[in-house]
């Protein structure tokens, strides 16, 4: 997986040709807190993001934190998942939607956090994957990950989980855990490769729980 790196440059000429905007100044703007750069309610299109390549098809995508302005994009992503999912997974998609809409982007709830992987298209950004967690008492936080079908072999899920784990560590979350179907071998292998352990779910033998201790 390759991350885009900024190449040193003398600057970017402004349209009025009066002076240059230096790369350093542009970077400060890119990583500045959202509230200092945009009034409340403005689209989140320019939230700070990191860029990646998919390893097989070399498609570019970015990852950034989910904001209230992403409601439409998230709804479109969830609809695409539901159309392609078998019936037994629809409940899981509904749980994901509840986490994203009711906790991550609802007003006044800052304990839950989510990240989106986005592909730029001629019509604008399109979400190709999401990862989010919400605290569940003192034991830690429950997390969810979902990736669009065409990107499940492109390590987008790994990028999202790694981003989520970094944020959880900084936030002081002691443990991340999330349920999945036993048949989802790809997710189990991904979790194991990133330090998670797979535990049984006593109430349902068709489920497994991925658990990662952070401190």
Task: Describe the model.
- This protein has one domain (63-213): Gcn5-related N-acetyltransferase (GNAT) (Aminopeptidase), CATH 3.40.630.30.
- It has helices at 23-31, 34-37, 71-84, 90-104, 156-171, 185-193, and strands at residues 2-3, 12-13, 20-21, 49-53, 60-65, 113-121, 124-135, 141-147, 175-181, 197-200, 207-213.
- It is α+β, with helices and mostly antiparallel strands and 215 residues long.
- The protein starts with a strand and ends with a strand.
- The chain contains 6 helices and 11 strands.
- Strand 4 and strand 5 (60-65) form a beta hairpin.
- Helix 3 (71-84) runs antiparallel to helix 4.
- The strands form 2 sheets. Strands 1-4-5-6-7-8-9-11-10 form a 9-stranded mixed sheet, sandwiched between helices. It has a two-stranded antiparallel sheet with strand order 2-3.
- 31% of the residues lie in helices and 29% in strands.
């Amino acid at each position: 997986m390759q991350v885009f790196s900024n190449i040193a440059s003398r600057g970017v000429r402004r349209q009025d040709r009066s002076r240059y905007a230096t790369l350093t100044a542009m970077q400060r703007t890119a990583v500045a807190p959202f509230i200092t750069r945009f009034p409340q309610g403005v689209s989140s299109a320019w939230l700070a993001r990191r860029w990646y390549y998919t390893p097989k098809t070399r498609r570019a995508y970015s990852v950034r934190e989910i904001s209230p302005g992403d409601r439409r994009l998230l709804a479109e992503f969830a609809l695409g998942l539901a159309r392609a999912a078998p019936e037994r997974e629809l409940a899981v998609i509904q749980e994901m939607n509840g986490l994203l809409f009711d906790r991550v982007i609802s007003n006044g709830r800052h304990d839950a956090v989510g990240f989106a992987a986005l592909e730029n298209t001629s019509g604008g950004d399109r979400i190709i994957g999401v990862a989010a967690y919400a605290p569940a008492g003192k034991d830690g936080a429950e997390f969810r990950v979902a990736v669009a079908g065409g990107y499940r072999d492109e390590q987008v899920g790994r990028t999202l989980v790694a981003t989520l784990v970094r944020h959880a560590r900084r936030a002081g979350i002691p443990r991340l855990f999330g349920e999945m179907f036993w048949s989802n071998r790809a997710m189990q292998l991904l979790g194991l490769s990133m330090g998670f352990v797979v535990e049984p779910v006593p109430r349902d033998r068709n489920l497994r729980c991925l658990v990662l201790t952070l401190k």
